[in-house]
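From the methods appendix. Each design record in this collection lists the tokenized structure first, followed by the designed amino acid sequence. Records were kept in a plain field format so they could be parsed without special tools. The example shown here is representative of the layout used throughout.

RECORD:
FOLD TOKENS (290 positions):
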């Protein structure tokens, strides 16, 4: 009887400890989301001043603007927005009309935002959607990645289905090439230049020799006992004829076939010269680590 009571106390104690750990994790995620949202509020306030220097203070660096076929990586002094061009369009101010949180970690939050632009008559003259990746650097939360996203009903179903199918096939080919340690095949489903934001690490691959595009598979095997990777989940969250945003998670397995890591991520694939390839990757902290 005495042993049974001790077992119950131990079980309850473990359960309570697990509850505390989960609560702390949820609280940290909620705090990160709140602070990242506040950073977006500060950004739109800075944006509406039309003052480039004020906007530069609100974002984090290196900063990525990903629009169409352009991937612009900028330092603080290089970050640019042509407010004069906006004003020639009649722009006076912008608003964030809805903000949807997509992925959260303690140092990075991904958002899908619906925005509107207003003219001097107070009328909306254009609106759209944009993806923002907001990061925490040295205690400062700021937007570090921006890219226009597809609007609701902007494209017909056939266009969306075709782009989704082709971009998904490119992701599948990526993992086939990765597991075969085939660097040549990997380059067929990657675009150059390319950016990866990986939990405090910023990699700007400007040529095919970059470790991002030509991984050291031998080192992975030695360091992690890596054997292969597998796509665990894949969802297209924004689709246009030439750009698809995927939220996904991938898993890594060791030589014994045991899973040792699961990583959620945002990948952006673009179609250039008829070829779909990965152009931007934002990795979240591992959701499972053995």
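DESIGN:
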């Amino acid at each position: 009887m005495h042993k049974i009571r001790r077992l119950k106390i131990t079980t309850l104690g473990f359960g309570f400890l697990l509850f505390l750990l989960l609560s702390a994790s949820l609280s940290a995620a909620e705090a990160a989301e709140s602070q990242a949202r506040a950073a977006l509020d500060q950004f739109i306030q800075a944006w509406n001043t039309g003052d480039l220097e004020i906007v530069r203070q609100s974002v984090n660096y290196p900063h990525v603007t990903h629009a169409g076929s352009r991937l612009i990586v900028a330092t603080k002094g290089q970050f640019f927005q042509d407010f004069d061009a906006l004003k020639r369009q009649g722009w006076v101010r912008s608003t964030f009309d809805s903000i949807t949180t997509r992925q959260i970690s303690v140092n990075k939050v991904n958002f899908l935002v619906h925005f509107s632009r207003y003219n001097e008559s107070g009328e909306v003259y254009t609106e759209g959607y944009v993806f923002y990746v907001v990061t925490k650097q040295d205690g400062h939360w700021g937007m570090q990645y921006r890219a226009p996203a597809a609007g609701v009903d902007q494209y017909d179903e056939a266009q969306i289905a075709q782009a989704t199918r082709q971009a998904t096939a490119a992701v599948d080919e990526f993992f086939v090439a990765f597991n075969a340690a085939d660097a040549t095949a990997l380059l067929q489903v990657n675009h150059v230049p390319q950016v990866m934001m990986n939990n405090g690490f910023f990699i700007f691959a400007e040529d095919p020799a970059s470790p991002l595009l030509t991984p050291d598979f031998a080192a992975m095997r030695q360091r992690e006992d890596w054997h292969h990777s597998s796509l665990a989940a894949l969802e297209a969250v924004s689709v246009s004829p030439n750009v698809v945003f995927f939220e996904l998670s991938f898993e890594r397995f060791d030589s014994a076939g045991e899973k040792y890591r699961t990583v959620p991520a945002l990948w952006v694939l673009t179609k250039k010269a008829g070829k779909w390839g990965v152009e931007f990757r934002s990795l979240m902290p591992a959701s499972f680590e053995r």
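APPENDIX NOTE: Residues 145 and 273 are 24 Å apart (CA to CA).
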